[in-house]
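Predict the 3D structure for this chain.
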Amino acid sequence: MSKPTTPIALITGGSRGLGRNTATKLAESGTDVILTYHSNKVEADSAVAQIEKLGRRAVALQLDVGVSAGFTAFAEQVRGALHRHWQRERFDYLVNNAGVGVHASIAETTEAQFDELVNVHFKGTFFLTQKLLPLIADGGRIVNLSSGLARFSFPGYAAYASMKGAIEVLSRYMAKELGPRGITVNVIAPGAIETDFGGGAVRDNAQLNAMIASLTALGRVGLPDDVGGAIAALLSPGNGWVNGQRIEVAGGIFL
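Done. Predicted structure below.
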């Protein structure tokens, strides 16, 4: 009888924040990881070392998800890493996590800010997934990251939240089109989380933290473990029939 194959996850922005937490949670559940980082190789190497301490294999590859011209070359890097480190041609899970935050009113949002959000959050997710489709195993899983802000509205996040709304629609179409290959596609939409995202405001601004906690049924803001754990759970064997869904991981805010 053949030995079960260890699943491999590719996580964009996996060297820090929610991406790194997701990588760690998946490693704890027995998954190997290919993670991408934007520019901080030291941080990426630290994430790889952390995963290896958990007994899993990990590789870090540099990628700017906002520059789609580099995606073909990146896909070849992934192909090479799969052959070199796993002697395999496919990976199992794609987590489109990498992102940037912009806080500006509609009146103040610049075209440059808007274009960056489009390129990173929407165009990047669309075309990176497209380029990686030949490398995703049939029966695999895709998780795209959205935001609670696509459901409820806070002034200053119109452009950012609009991109996340686009991701939610795109994910349903992905689920429909990739269904014949047995690939599921779902959305995880975090609420406010204590990370360095957006300058670390939720983590470091006590007044903002308390305000969000007061609006949340569970009485606190989210922690990275809350989201990383949810993504790992969604990718677990028991959730293979969940498809085309948006799952908000926000502790019950604005119920």
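The longest strand covers residues 136-145.
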